Amino acid sequence: MENDTSKSHLPSGSGTGWIARSNLQWHQLVLAMLLFFGSTIGTIAAGSVGVVTKVQNQAQIGSQAAVAGTPVHMNDELRTGAGARLQVTFSDQSELTLGENARVVVDRYVFDPDKSSANVVLSATRGAFRFAGGRIEGMRKKNIVVNTPSAALAVRGTHFWAGPIEGKYGVLLLKGKVKVSKR
After folding, report:
1. Does residue 103 contact residue 79 with C-beta atoms inside 8 Å?
2. What is the pTM of this model?
3. Same domain membership, residue 119 and residue 67
4. Is 102 a member of any domain?
5. pLDDT tens digit string along 37-72?
6. Looking at the domain assignment, is residue 85 inside a domain?
7. What is the span of the domain harbouring residue 77?
8. Which of 17, 19, 20, 126 is most buried, by the most CB atoms less than 10 A from its CB?
């Protein structure tokens, strides 16, 4: 019995060159897909609302030590120790920075650019923090609330600092408006 070495099942004019071109095109397609999807998947993990971008000294997300790249989810408790700093970048590129001995819970974070809406609720129970808005600033319908031990802050701007000042809780507005209401 003879071996049939004809290549009638390949396109005309094909041979090993066709296979090499086909493999090259396949690899280029896979590489393009990885670059496209990897640019967003690598920064914000699925199901998370943000990611730790900077850590100085001791900080935690929930019960685990915070390191750059740690995902942040709704209801996570963010904590820092003495001399520590922690920065979280949310999916809209807003940044939350905690100072030393701070505790903030991400109660709610919803960012929907298709509906031009955003809803952020944070509970700050200890220490100082700074919030700097990213793409959330451009949303027509946005609600940013920070609950503190002594007041609720309804933020109508998105760059502010809050924390203890001489035994009281203070707010420094860097951009926008803040409405303070007693608890």
Report:
1. yes
2. 0.72
3. yes
4. yes
5. 343 334 455 689 999 999 999 999 999 999 999 999
6. yes
7. 50-182
8. 126
